[in-house]
Amino acid sequence: CAQLGLASALATKVGDDSFGQYVINKLKSFGVDTSFVGTVENAQTPLAFAALTPPETPTVVFYRGVAAPDTQLTQDSVPAPVVRETKILWISQTSLSQGTTAETCLSWMGLRGSDAHTILDLDYRPQLWASKQDARAMATRAIALASIVVGNLEECEVALGTTDASEAADALLAAGVKLAIIKLGAEGVLIKSASEQIVIPSHPVEVVCGLGAGDAFGGAVCYGLINDWDLEKIGTFANAAGAFVAARLTCADAMPTVAELEKMLAGAV
């Protein structure tokens, strides 16, 4: 989001080690507000290692303690007025897997009005859950508090019990979600509201590393929502953002700007 020019803040916690300070400094360099990034004394900042096996869906291995800092958020980690008034609240399903952070995130979602953009990303990391059943139970609770849900087919299977995109979108709308965004990989994205359904083809690129493509996609969705774009324009822009990052080796450092995406969509890249 920050690379696209949106005011962005992250709520999390890191350890009081050199990795934690690196994370804070890196976020600041990207233009992210770190006011809500706390530090836990005598704790290690979790690490993630990625292997390009295969490049499209890299294998990610997490190195983290039993009570990792990012699992220790509490309701007062972010003031309630900030949670209520922010234009978009983005919650990752991974944040709901462990510690006090899980219930904290649900409580923040509950503070939001029905017309607010409260987004649940169904991001699923099996290593962080006791079982798939636990992940589905928590997803059910979070979906009930979300106005928008984003996920790929594997994540929909975990959260909803189906790998059929249309069935998943219908299930989300039946649960009260206003906008279902189902990522279809190389097939593009299906976006459905109560009045419209559209499938938008992917933006073809040679994949170098798929890591971070979903984050770029999500940032672009936020940009489109903030600017009140129609569903087709949001999906096209988001697909391009994901493709932009997938065609590069790095993740956060490869996040595109608006100008780069406009150039890409114009066919110049």
Structure in a nutshell:
This protein folds into 2 domains: 69 residues, 3-Layer(aba) Sandwich (UDP-N-acetylmuramoyl-L-alanine:D-glutamate ligase), CATH 3.40.1190.30; 197 residues, 3-Layer(aba) Sandwich (UDP-N-acetylmuramoyl-L-alanine:D-glutamate ligase), CATH 3.40.1190.20.
Secondary structure layout:
Layout: E1 8-9, E2 12-15, H1 18-29, E3 32-33, E4 37-40, E5 47-51, E6 59-63, H2 80-85, E7 88-92, H3 99-110, E8 117-121, H4 132-143, E9 148-152, H5 153-160, H6 165-174, E10 179-183, E11 189-192, E12 197-200, H7 213-226, H8 231-246, H9 258-265
Parallel strand pairs: 1-3, 2-4, 7-8, 8-9, 9-10
Antiparallel strand pairs: 5-6, 10-11, 11-12
Helix pairs in contact: 5-6, 7-8, 8-9
User: Sheet bearing the most strands, described?
Assistant: 6 strands, mixed
Kindly report how far apart the N and C termini lie: 21 Å
The best one-word shape is globular
Count of domains: 2
Determine the number of helices (DSSP H or I, runs of at least 4 residues).
Answer: 9
How large is the radius of gyration? 18 Å
The largest beta-sheet arranges its strands as 7-8-9-10-11-12
Residues in helix, %: 25-40%
CATH architecture of the largest domain, by name, is 3-Layer(aba) Sandwich
CATH topology of the largest domain: UDP-N-acetylmuramoyl-L-alanine:D-glutamate ligase
CATH class group of the largest domain: Alpha Beta
Structural class given helices, strands, pairing?
A: alpha/beta
Mean pLDDT: 96
Find the CATH superfamily of the largest domain: Ribokinase
Q: What is the percentage of strand-forming residues?
A: 15-25%
Number of strands: 12
The low-confidence runs, each spanning 5 or more residues with pLDDT under 50, are none
Order of helices and strands: EEHEEEEHEHEHEHHEEEHHH
